Model the fold of this input.
Amino acid sequence: MNEMRSSLPLEAMSHAGRTQATQDHGLLVTLEGLRGIAALCVVSYHLTTTRLIPSAYLSVDLFFSLSGFVITLRYFNVLRSGELTPGRFMIARFLRLYPLYLLGTVLGVASWFGGHYFGHNASRDQPFNLVAIFAFFMAPNFSTGASYLYPLNIPAWSLLLELIANLLFAYNIMIWRRILPITVLITGLLLIFFSIDAGTLDFGAEWESFYHGLVRAVFGFSVGSWLCLAKERVQWVPKISPLLLCLMFFGILFCPYYSLFGWASSLIVLTVFPALIIVASRSEPSGLTSRVMVLLGKLSFPVYMLHVPIIAMLRQVSHLFHLGEGFVFVSAFPGVALASWTSLVIFDVPLRRRIKILSRT
Done:
């Protein structure tokens, strides 16, 4: 969910690989815009209990599919050729995710202490020291009786499951094309079953729904990868304005699918999202629209990783000074955007650049 605007793999790629990635990058701008809008919708979902955008949780499914599409585009050939080993691919993926994950965890710790000392703390089901020890190693909370995988920054659950999907991709790369259809079919059927049982696809963050979330991640990644490998065979794709595609996606999330029938949300993920991705991959914006979509893509990962602890701290400030929920609502989006941009400029990008230099020495 975070690879579209990143640099090429830390490991050296062939000239042909670099050229192909460069040629394809322009076609990813609309996908960047979709990913940025999805991240903002997730913020709105966690901002109030009234759920301003009822189906914003489906943004995570789009993240998984976009990740599968772009990682396949960037890494499939170099992994199959042996130019990049699965182990080094996984190291590169971990290093790509960890800096902002770590920053989100640090903010989660700050939020925990703020809530503890100012009397407005979300309930924690485990002692803080155990939660923190697991979290800083990017390990889920294995403490007995734990509820959330990552109590200090709940959205991190999707990073863990995405890494598992990456692992399956890298270590099965030689047979990946052959196993994709059956993987998509089986996980798609399981997704329908789970959504009927739960009445929603909003699961995966807690241990009791871990395997449900894993199916969600593997399906999303696999269908995105399949779309990438099959995109050249799709001879006719309608030309739709990138801005219209983003508005369509935004509108899709406004429908409360859980109130229709049990598997309505899985129907969207199984049919509408793949169609949206394949059309968006062939749509290239220009001018101001392109610049805005690139900016949204750059901010999407920090927004996703930082918004929960930032909103929690804003609630603590509101509670301390009796400012009311209106303060949180008004300040959340600009606060998250500012923190995301700052973290990107002074922390994430410089650190990734430094890691890239060190990897070449």
